[in-house]
Amino acid sequence: MSIIDSVKNTAFSTAVNTVLDYLEKDPEANIPKAMRLMDKALPDGWYEGQRAAFRRAIDDKGNWYQLIMKAYQLDEGVRKTFFQNFIVNSALKGTAIQNEIRKKENCNVPWAILLDPTSACNLHCSGCWAAEYGHKLNLSLETIDSIVRQGKELGIYMYIYTGGEPMVRKKDLITLCERHPDCEFLSFTNGTLIDEAFCKEMLRVKNFVPAISLEGFEQANDGRRGKGVFEKVMRAMDLLRSNKLPFGISTCYTSANYADISSEQFFDMMIEMGAMFVWFFHYMPVGNDAVPELLPTPEQRKTVYERVRAFRETKPIFSMDFQNDAEYVGGCIAGGRNYLHINAAGDVEPCVFIHYSNVNIHECSLLDALKSPIFMAYHDGQPFNKNMLRPCPMLENPQLLREMVKRTGAKSTDLQSPESVDHLCDKCESYAAQWEPTANALWAASGKGYSSK
Prior knowledge:
Layout: H1 3-25, H2 27-41, H3 48-60, H4 63-71, H5 76-105, E1 112-115, H6 141-153, E2 158-161, H7 170-179, E3 184-189, H8 196-205, E4 208-213, H9 218-225, H10 229-242, E5 248-253, H11 258-261, H12 264-273, E6 277-282, H13 298-312, E7 318-321, E8 339-342, E9 348-349, E10 356-357, H14 366-370, H15 373-381, H16 398-408, E11 411-412, H17 421-445
């Protein structure tokens, strides 16, 4: 990182902290004045894109303004910690360190690390890729602590738990929050183990945010997760909201539930329950027993694409569709480009959905893992398609994943029923071919330009 970039980053961090402190005094009165304060603190042209986006949100007083105001209804300590860890430590300070190491080491360095504290789960949901690992694996507290310590040396301050059900390890998750108060920890969870006692612990440590899995309304959700789970999720969200704690929703869309999860009623329900964000994940046919019939048709995926984008402009909830929003992050974000995944056995995988690896975190450093053959294949191959609606080397470009895994000698990390890369990619060939014409038309119509790789 150049001296000029370092100065700009430090100045912007200082300006952000100044504005956040100012807003705490009286957010509703001071929000309109906040950008004027930021403009005075920074020279013309510095971070102009980010400043313009905030300025528009404030001036319009629309859904983004409403979302900002919702943040000021959260517990004060939790809110301040989130802003410090997510905006200052992760987005500003961390990104600068990551960029410096990327250039020095000539490899990807992620913004976030996804890891599985355990493969155990109190539910057994149909179509769950995590179930392929088995239910007896755990990363020890000290191993996770080492991953976080190594990550911080690389500028990584964002850690996301997957599983299994991470909340099976409640005590250890809180201990990690205590040991690393400068990091933000988010956990995907089925929500059924969130209780009043855990809410109090979240209020105490201030740097833990749940993302609760929800597959639609009660019938669709319980059809996949089990009878009574929807009601338990509603109860968990009630507890979080009453304790003024931030949380979000994670939903996987399939051919069966795509209409529900992209409906206005579903968005309104999430907002009413108090969710601050929703992450949409496209169903992936991972595992020997996966059901390809759950893959959305091109028309169904297009419906999700259009509805999520429409509601993003009108609803006070932050939404991200991790298959259809690749244009905002430059394509595939896996392989350490923006994130990597470490499973409960310690295998370091390029993607939470792609279970092939050359290395295990018990046997190498995090930096060495990022330089392993499969990760370097991602580094050298990204973006995998110039059409940002076809970003994935598995789902939309299966010939690329097939080639990378074979060339690098990466092995299946599925200990229950290892799946060959040919078996996995064969399930995606038809989907990729069917989606391509729709993706090409949407990409061309978006005005971003179109050129197939």
